[in-house]
Design brief:
Strands 2, 4, 5, 6, 9, 10 and 11 form a seven-stranded mixed sheet that branches. This protein has 118 residues and is an all-beta fold. It has strands at 4-7, 10-12, 18-24, 33-39, 46-51, 57-59, 67-72, 77-82, 91-99, 104-108, 112-116. The model has no long low-confidence stretch (mean pLDDT 96). The chain is globular.
């Protein structure tokens, strides 16, 4: 059973930076595909970034060049480094994990609020 706990959200001015963390329980972290999603008020949940179990990364066009997803398998943690933040990045950010090749379906964290405002 995989459980996810996010941290690192907060209030930051435009142009600032934040690093989100998501710690996973369980023993199969190395096999997980990990994603960060976000959901702004009144909008659908949006995929922001993905890192596969082979360290391949992809990003949405809206964050490409500003956000970096990474993972530390020794710490069972996935990170989202967010730079040059904009007010439109304001949202609840969710960590997601799955590994269908070993029978793990989508698992979600509870989310962490990021607010970009002066």
């Amino acid at each position: 059973q995989v459980q996810l706990v996010e941290s690192g959200g907060g209030l930051v001015p435009p142009g600032g930076s934040l690093r989100l963390s998501c710690v996973a329980s369980g023993r199969i972290f190395r096999q997980l595909r990990l994603r960060w999603y976000r959901q702004a008020p009144g909008k659908q949940r949006e995929l922001v970034a993905t890192i596969t179990n082979t360290d391949i990364t992809t990003y949405s066009d809206s964050v490409k060049g500003r956000f970096t997803i990474s993972r530390d398998n020794a710490k069972s943690t996935v990170y989202l480094q967010m730079n040059s933040l904009k007010p439109e990045d304001t949202a609840v950010y969710y960590c997601n994990a799955n590994a269908p090749w070993v029978g793990v379906r989508d698992v979600w964290g509870e989310g962490t609020q990021v607010t970009v405002s002066s």
